[in-house]
């Protein structure tokens, strides 16, 4: 993800609309890198994170916090600097978050189901919660 973003920021035109550079969506792309690191860390370190509900919670957190926050901040800065018109918080939400929430939740549910099916259910790399998985259940 970092290589994809770095090359796009450097000028390779493969972002939305065959654009390159930071543009209005640069904050979201940075958020994608943060989300990939976050989810990768939890999947590698905790067996419990590989269950459907744990993965869904992690994915929703990473989507709505790690992707939307830098994305909306950057979108607001970009609108103010490039377009010369500062946007209100509600306008930013209307442009950069609200239209995408239903689709993002649907994709997170599907991705959590796929992740549940393909991730190992036994320890393979010294996970921190090794040996606790068999006794763990939702309250």
Description:
The chain has five helices and no strands. It has a domain at 31-122. It is an all-alpha fold and 139 residues long. It is elongated, with a radius of gyration of 18 Å.
User: Count of DSSP E strands?
Assistant: 0
What share of the residues lie within helices?
A: 55-70%
Content of β-strand: under 5%
Poorly predicted regions? none
Q: Between the first and last Cα atoms, what is the distance in angstroms? A: 36 Å
- What is the CA-based Rg, rounded? 18 Å
Descriptors for this entry?
single chain; 139 residues; mainly alpha; 5 helices
Topology:
Elements: H1 2-10, H2 26-45, H3 52-83, H4 89-96, H5 101-118
Briefly summarize what is shown.
With 139 residues, this protein is mainly α. Helix content is 63%, strand content 0%. Helix 3 packs across helix 4.
